[in-house]
Specification:
- It is a single chain.
- The protein is α+β, with helices and mostly antiparallel strands.
- The protein has one domain (about 5-85, about 120-350): Glucose Oxidase, domain 1.
- About 25% of the residues lie in helices and about 20% in strands.
- It has ten helices and 18 strands.
- It has helices at about 5-20, 30, 55-60, 160-165, 175-180, 200-210, 240-255, 260-270, 300-305, 320; strands at about 70, 85-90, 95-100, 105, 110-115, 120-125, 130-135, 135-140, 145, 170-175, 200, 220-225, 260, 275, 310-315, 325-330, 340-345, 350.
- Helix 6 (about 200-210) crosses helix 8 and helix 8 (about 260-270) runs parallel beside helix 9.
- It starts with a helix and ends with a strand.
Length: about 350
């Protein structure tokens, strides 16, 4: 599979760190007491715990037109993927089995080899993002990779099934940064709040006001439309030849516009429970793989590892954008895959 420039840069950085002194750690999770979280030391689900019956009823009330939009992209072998990830599906046998009985029944099965929780439209769960500290690799709510029950065959208390038991039924908020900026957002060139490819806290507030919707609040699920995802548009992808697809994959993976850390911190202060976007990381990935600062994937760490605010990547927001559906009932749950780091899926918006 393809190794993107971003993935290669991160790999070189990790290799350099591995050869450096053991003091190359980030002890912020320990000194700032990221654990236990407000839901207690036994919690395994994160910010989705904020959801109340009244929040669900309020979200259901946003359905006015009876319209439904599916927000997942098609899983396919030629779709863009981060680093060496890939989707490899085969139908063995054709037919796989049969015939059986007088009816001569036959059937087909698929065999799938993939990073099932981290490919295509994907949900980042508790076991996905951690921080190397002096006490070990720290994950959500103070769990470490060396803990009992965490291993190569599943991450135990960090498994995505613990979030799946809750599921997401919430007020969905679409932030249309393309309309706000006047066009598709560029890949950031500078680690600065002034870069047009980076969405800041002030940008989030301005989009909410511009779109005429209620302020972002507790229990909301917030999604960002950057236009970058149109490089891999679900309606057009199969019309392209192999050369055009390869060109678009390279452009899609070369970096991305998205939330800067100031926007992520602001959203966390509003007590949201989920972020998402039409990109592969949701946050900005530009110069040196950083966003608003030089730190790569800072929003991942500060939202997911620190606060249990999970993430949906590579979403298809095109129908919501076309209909200017800025508020909607959002319904989705990751698959109950024991010990998995994330999940595929097809989220739904009703409005």
């Amino acid at each position: 599979m393809r190794i993107t420039a971003i993935a290669a840069a991160l790999a070189m950085g990790l290799a350099a760190n591995a050869g450096a002194q053991a003091l190359n750690v980030n002890d912020a999770p320990l000194t700032e007491k990221w654990a236990p979280t407000e839901w207690g030391p036994d919690d395994k689900a994160g910010a989705v715990n904020r959801t109340t019956p009244q929040m669900v009823l309020d979200a259901v009330g946003l359905v006015k037109q009876g319209k439904v939009a599916t927000l997942g992209k098609v899983y396919a072998g030629d779709a863009p993927a981060f680093g060496s990830r890939g989707w490899r599906m085969t139908i063995p046998g054709l037919p796989t089995g049969g015939p059986f009985g007088d009816q001569q029944l036959v059937y087909n099965d698929e065999y799938l080899a993939t990073e099932i929780g981290q490919i295509g439209t994907q949900f980042d769960g508790p076991g996905h993002i951690g921080v190397t500290t002096s006490k070990g690799m720290f994950f959500y709510n103070g769990r470490f990779l060396g803990d009992e029950g965490i291993g190569a065959y599943g991450v135990g208390p960090l498994g995505v099934e613990h979030v799946a038991k809750k599921g997401f039924v919430c007020r969905g908020v679409l932030l249309d940064a393309v309309a706000y900026r006047g066009g598709q957002l560029p890949v950031p060139k500078e680690n600065s709040k002034d870069d047009p490819g980076i969405i800041t806290d002030e940008d989030v507030k301005a989009m909410v006001e511009r779109q005429g919707i209620d302020p972002i609040g507790e229990g909301d699920c917030v999604f960002l439309h950057t236009g970058h995802g149109d490089l891999w548009h679900p309606q057009d992808w199969d019309k392209f030849d192999a050369a055009e697809k390869a060109k678009r994959v390279a452009a899609f993976n070369a970096g991305e516009p998205g939330f800067g850390i100031s926007a992520c911190e602001y959203l966390a202060e509003q007590k949201i429970i989920l972020t998402g976007a039409d990109t592969w990381a949701v946050e900005a990935v530009g110069k040196g793989a950083g966003g608003e600062t030089t730190q790569p994937f800072e929003c991942h760490i500060k939202l997911q590892t620190k606060r249990g605010i999970w993430n949906l990547e590579n979403m298809d927001l095109s129908q919501l954008v076309a209909d200017k559906a800025y508020e909607f009932l959002f319904v989705w749950s990751p698959l109950k895959m024991k010990g998995a780091t994330g999940s595929p899926g097809n989220p739904m918006a009703l409005y």
